[in-house]
Amino acid sequence: MNPASKRIVFSCGGKGGVGKTTVASAVADYYAARGIAATLFDCDTENKQRGSLRHFFPAAEKLDIRAERGLDRFVDIALAADTPVALADLAAGSGRDTFHWFDTMFDGLAAAGVGFTAVATITSAASSVETLFTWANALGTRTRYLVVKNHLAGDDFGYFEDTEPGRAFLAQAEPVVIDLKARAREIQTELDNRGLTAAQVSSADAARRGPLLNGGTARVRAEAYARQIDAALDSARPLLLP
Amino acid sequence: MPGKPFQSKLIPHTDFIRECRTRGLGYRQIAAELRARFGLPTSPANIFSFVKVRARRRPVFSLPNPEPTASASPRPPPASPRPPARPNPAPSNWLNYDPARPLEKLPPPPP
């Protein structure tokens, strides 16, 4: 496949527990639902098996970008794959490695027509927003930005929208900002426990769903979660495709 | 015989510094970049010493000759073996974000 038709979508690996993998999984579901072939990378080598991207998508390639030439290997695989998009769920704290690599490699890949989308998942906590600003400060406008406001800890995103760096980011980077509505904690934790995304619940067999997700209410909720994030991602379609 | 180099906090950023030098950035600019990108406070003189010591000990680093003083005034960048033009470079601290300071919420903009 011509690299000119490639897009590399990656999560901004910063603070843990903000929903990076939940969002990355939802993006993978988005591609799967539309028959868009995607190469998946689970770069969160420090994360336990349960709860990592490969837990939800066993075909995802586990890759340590902090290893020597790890990022080079990631891109080599992504470019060689016969898929229009590559999706990488980066580990928390992977910024420095990525920033330097990006500085070194961006020109060549951009010249080859590879586009980048950084997916930043934020909550109402300042620390999650600081991760976004750190990444944006380093990557600049060389990548497009998809910001996912995860409402798990509240609906106040003032640290993102009402701070000087936030306003500068919104004005200059022109990100697409979408919402991940709050989810019932017991349902989300059970999804994580069973390696199911919300979108996979309806097609999973009863044994894999387990007692909670076999319950009517939980199942309906999970399916609603899947529809919500899918519709939100569809509003960001240009950032997810080449 | 020279001893083991001082364990500088810049060591993890050796590749980054080399890249900056290759691109013709001065030590003051590199210090600003390190602070903006990695939240690492350091001085141009510190970077100068770091580069100088390693360039002497390990020619494989291929670092360009350091500037004569740490407070060098702006000057044209030296010829670079890499393509100098970056189609869409990351501006230095374009968000005016200082990770060492807490985020301060601003009053809402006027309607």
Strand order of the largest sheet of chain A: 3-2-4-1-5-6-7
Order of helices and strands of chain B: HHH
State mean pLDDT of chain A (0 to 100 scale).
90
Portion of residues in helices of chain B? 25-40%
Instruction: Tell me the number of structural domains of chain A.
Output: 1
CATH classification, class level of chain A: Alpha Beta
The CATH topology annotation of chain A reads as Rossmann fold
Radius of gyration of chain A equals 17 Å
**Low-pLDDT residue intervals, each spanning 5 or more residues of chain B:** 64-87
Question: What's the pLDDT, averaged over the residues of chain B?
Answer: 69
CATH homology group of chain A: P-loop containing nucleotide triphosphate hydrolases
Largest interface: A-B, 32 and 27 residues
Overall shape of chain A: globular
CATH architecture of chain A: 3-Layer(aba) Sandwich
Q: Quaternary arrangement of the chains shown?
A: heterodimer
> What are the low-pLDDT stretches of chain A, counting only 5+ consecutive residues below 50?
none
Structural class of chain B: mainly alpha
Report the major sheet of chain B: none
Protein model, in words:
The complex is a heterodimer of chains A (242) and B (111). By secondary structure, chain A is an alpha/beta fold. Chain A has a single domain (3-183), classed as P-loop containing nucleotide triphosphate hydrolases (Rossmann fold). Chain A contains eleven helices and seven strands. Chain A has helices spanning 20-33, 53-56, 70-80, 95-111, 126-139, 158-161, 164-173, 185-194, 206-214, 216-234, 237-240; strands at 7-11, 38-43, 61-62, 85-90, 115-122, 144-150, 176-180. In chain A, strands 3-2-4-1-5-6-7 form a seven-stranded parallel beta sheet, sandwiched between helices. In chain A, helix 1 (20-33) crosses helix 10. Chain A is globular and about 50 Å long. With 111 residues, chain B is mainly α. Chain B has a domain at 12-61. Chain B has three helices and no strands. The chains are: A alpha/beta (242), B mainly alpha (111). At the A-B interface, helix 4, helix 5 and helix 7 of A face helix 1 and helix 2 of B.
